[in-house]
Specification:
4 helices; about 35% strand; RibonucZ/Hydroxyglut_hydro; alpha/beta; MBL fold metallo-hydrolase; Metallo-beta-lactamase, Chain A
Length: about 260
């Protein structure tokens, strides 16, 4: 299993001999509704779009997970798996092989890979987006991804999961509360899934930020404070802090049956 963190929520996951592009934002700036005054993020270093992608996996239909400019640059023939809102977006962009997954549904590449949609983050009063469990059917290894730290208790039935990709800090807004759940939420998912490793997502990386929203966002917690919380709860899960755009192998220990 190889992973490359592409900044923010974007990842290249190499599992089951497949290259999966997860929630890609790879070109241009990131804004919500083109409102640069409210929030804007830009890359500090120009990057080349990864090649030979077998699958695009989208957890949400919002711009920071299904980035329109990036999706317009990618080959429309690449298969896409996504939440219903993300699937609707890519169909409108002209993608030809699109699978919408509702919670509990599974996309599979026979004998190689299984992708299960689980309940993810709320993006409205009635909309719950997707988290995913990716399982290598040959190696028996698995990854769980939820980009805002909203973990549903029902994922316990799929434990153990070797690698968890989730926020590790809390991000809060006045009056709204916690919009990204990190510290205690990461401990909870570690208790449920017993992963060997946790990797942070939703962090900055090689990016710059501007806009009105930044005046109110408050980040709490660090990787070190999370390590202390894991140890205090007798959890052996380790934290890997990847560097942006550096491919690395996740070396998993074989667990005796």
């Amino acid at each position: 299993m190889y992973l490359t963190w592409l900044d923010s929520n974007s990842w290249l996951i190499e599992i089951a001999d497949k290259r999966i592009l997860l929630d890609p934002w790879l070109v241009g700036s990131l804004m919500f509704g083109n409102a640069a005054w409210f929030f804007k993020s830009e890359r500090l270093t120009p990057r080349e779009i990864p090649q030979n992608i077998d699958l695009i996996l989208l957890s949400q239909g919002l711009e920071d997970h299904a980035h329109p400019a990036t999706l317009q640059q990618l080959d429309r023939q690449i298969p896409v798996v996504g939440s219903p809102s993300a699937a609707k977006l890519v169909k409108e962009l002209g993608y030809t092989q699109v699978t919408a997954l509702n919670h509990g549904e599974v996309f599979s590449i026979p004998h190689l890979l299984e992708i299960r949609a689980v309940i993810g983050s709320p993006t409205g009063p009635t909309t719950m987006e997707n988290g995913y469990i990716l399982r290598d059917l040959v190696a028996g290894t698995a990854i769980y991804y939820e980009p805002h730290g909203y973990h549903t208790q029902s994922i316990q039935e799929f434990a153990p999961v070797d690698v968890v990709i989730t926020p590790t800090i809390d991000l809060k807004l006045p009056l709204v509360g916690t919009v990204i759940k990190g510290q205690q939420s990461a401990v909870k998912v570690a208790q449920w899934l017993k992963p060997q490793f946790i990797l942070p997502t939703a962090a900055g990386g090689d990016l710059s930020f501007s806009g009105f929203l930044l005046k109110f966002l408050k980040a709490e917690g660090t990787a070190e404070s999370l390590r202390s919380l894991l140890a205090a709860n007798n959890l052996a899960t380790q934290i890997i802090e990847p560097k942006p755009w550096e491919r690395f192998e996740v070396k998993l220990q074989k667990i005796a049956a």
